[in-house]
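Whiteboard transcription, Tuesday session. T.W. wrote the structure tokens on the left side:
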């Protein structure tokens, strides 16, 4: 179960005795050139947040439907299992381990399924969870496939829960393009595409009754006033969004070519990270870390996830580190 998260820079600095400021941190899938947060009005720091502020309108205008603001999609995925009695849950894996963990912790029976096993298992499930695009593998499921699974689940009161935390950069397969339907739950976040992970703001899109029930469990003021103010402004900045999507797409393709030149062709990618399965993933991770480059290592499935380098200097540093690791490995043979 993949419960460890990226961004553990303090731990890496202590382990490898390299000052925090001297690292190239590629361990997260967060936009390194995120939305520029402006100065906020003093009142957002001084007053309690209000649910009927400008944020609900901004969410509906941006996504085309009402959504419940939450303190990051993590808050939603951890709370949603409490809205169902004990049931049978399938999680498409390998994937972000917090989903299975949350359902198990709430007393549900959880099975991890490959994509190919979903069809045969669907009749025995009450809930199916998919991360799309997947983290860490970058696997992208077609919206038509997901909607077909949803119809079968919803016909008997089931749920399809789709975590679209990485969808904002390339939204072609988003389920937010279809009308709101019972039993269809979609999660979004400001943390990845907008590069605002520290804001802790996300949105839950589902039928009104389910949103209300979730809001009741989360309680009042679940999203801070500053986070709400930032979200309103970021969602409305369509010029930045269009520019960011174009830049990220170009940077991701260039990054994939760089990794391929060093014998690490990505098997899966998004605009924000590249997934490289490799039998020597642990050795490569260690070699890069000793050179002050932090990436995510996964033992199962064995591979590395590379976040997008922020600039030309970072690309050059990564190239030098990869060349050094490769030479070191060849020298040991």
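and on the right, the sequence the group agreed on:
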């Amino acid at each position: 179960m993949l419960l460890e998260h990226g961004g553990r820079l303090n731990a890496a600095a202590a382990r490898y005795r390299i000052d925090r400021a001297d690292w190239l941190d590629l361990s997260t899938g967060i936009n390194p050139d995120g939305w520029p947060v402006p100065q906020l009005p003093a009142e957002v720091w001084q007053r309690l947040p209000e649910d009927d502020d400008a944020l609900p309108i901004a969410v509906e205008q941006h996504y085309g439907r009402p959504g419940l603001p939450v303190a990051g999609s993590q808050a939603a995925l951890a709370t949603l299992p409490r809205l169902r009695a004990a049931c049978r849950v399938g999680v498409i894996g390998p994937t972000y381990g917090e989903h299975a963990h949350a359902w198990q912790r709430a007393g549900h029976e959880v099975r991890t399924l490959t994509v190919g096993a979903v069809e045969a298992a669907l009749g025995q499930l009450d809930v199916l969870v998919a991360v799309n695009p997947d983290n860490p593998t970058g696997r992208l499921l077609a919206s038509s496939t997901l909607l077909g699974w949803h119809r079968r689940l919803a016909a008997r009161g089931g749920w399809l829960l789709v975590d679209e935390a990485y969808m904002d950069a390339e939204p072609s397969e988003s389920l937010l393009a279809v009308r709101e339907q019972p039993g269809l739950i979609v999660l979004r976040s400001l943390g990845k595409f907008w590069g605002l992970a520290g804001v802790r703001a996300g949105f839950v899109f589902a039928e009104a009754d389910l949103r209300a029930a979730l809001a009741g469990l989360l309680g009042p003021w679940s999203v801070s006033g500053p986070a709400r103010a930032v979200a309103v402004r970021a969602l409305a900045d369509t010029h930045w969004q269009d520019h960011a999507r174009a830049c990220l797409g170009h940077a991701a393709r260039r990054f994939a070519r760089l990794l391929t030149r060093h014998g690490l062709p990505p098997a899966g990618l998004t605009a924000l990270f590249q997934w490289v399965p490799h039998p020597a993933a642990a050795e490569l991770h260690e070699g890069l870390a000793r050179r002050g480059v932090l990436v995510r290592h996964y033992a199962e499935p064995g591979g590395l996830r590379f976040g997008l380098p922020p600039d030309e200097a970072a690309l050059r540093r990564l190239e030098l580190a990869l060349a050094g690791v490769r030479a070191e490995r060849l020298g040991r043979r």
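Someone added at the bottom: The chain is about 40% helix and 15% strand.
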